[in-house]
Write a structure and sequence with these properties.
Number of helices: 2
Order of helices and strands: HEEEEEH
Structural class: alpha+beta
Strand order of the largest sheet: 4-3-2-1-5
Number of strands: 5
Helix content: 10-25%
Amino acid sequence: MKPKNRDFYLKSISVGTIVAFKNGDKLFSGKVIDINNSKVTVQTKNCSIYYINLNDIAWVKNGTNWPVGIYNALKISKERK
């Protein structure tokens, strides 16, 4: 069985997937609402819309919890307003 890497998860992104993404020096999370070529439209919980490149996606959430490193980065970004 071939191990799954980042590219595997980026290729399997679909509308409704939750992702963590970089915007400047901060990390945000949101739901994918549209996919066009290499651009992804993501909506956060507070209804902000971001148009990001696939390269800016840090993690694709495929379980119920974030990995510890991603969770901590999201938490620090939220506190650093």
